[in-house]
Fold this sequence. Notes:
Layout: H1 3-7, H2 11-25, H3 40-47, E1 55-59, H4 71-75, E2 79-84, H5 87-96, E3 101-104, E4 106-107, E5 112-118, H6 130-136, E6 145-152, H7 154-159, E7 169-172, H8 178-182, H9 187-190, E8 194-198, H10 210-219, E9 222-228, E10 231-236
Parallel strand pairs: 1-2, 1-7, 2-3, 4-6, 7-8
Antiparallel strand pairs: 5-6, 8-10, 9-10
Amino acid sequence: MSLRKFFLKNKISYKVYLIYNLFIRHKAFIKRSTYSQWGEDLEIIKFFKNKKKGNYLDIGCFHPLMYSNTCLLNQNKWTGINIDLNQTTIDLFNILRPKDLNVCRIIGSEEKKVKVYFDSLFSPVNTADKNFYNTHKKKFFKNMFTREVISQKLSEIMFKNKMYKKIDFVNIDAEGMDYKILKQLNLKKLKVRLVAIETHHVNGQVSKDFSKILNFLKKKNFSLLKRYGPTSLFYKN
């Protein structure tokens, strides 16, 4: 039995493993200059250099340290809402970012149970998009398992948490569902100034919804600031 499987056997050992993941494996006590996979957070921090204690919305947040586009903001006293379809991800955020609102949900058009395809409890490619799963299952999902997670409209999550009437920065990384989620955002009402969203694949090819994302943000008066790997940053004109 692997060390991970041993620790996931019960609630107590599971909590121990979460602590291990954060403070031993990812060394949460050591501050770094960047946490993003492609260096996006350096551009984000630069963009908000004169902004103190802002708010972020991170959808598909995955991990509070690893590949995080909001960790540096959090260390600069920002707070926000972190949403992911993986309860383990939310458990990690609850430990490391207790002042944030951390929600295990899928962003959808209605409240219902949705099948999620898991590569593992600590994988960045877990998805509720069946097409995404079918496309990538030969490379990932070697030990695939499924779970049901509740979907909910983004507006309902925001409405229930009125403390977040304004969101300065939005990060969307939802493995094939990015555009569907983006369409639910009221960018004007929330006064969003910067959006990070996946528009490309790692190999540089544009995603299937690239044009839709570009056109949607253009109509909302957002322009491309810079692209880092798969992620594009759009700022409000």
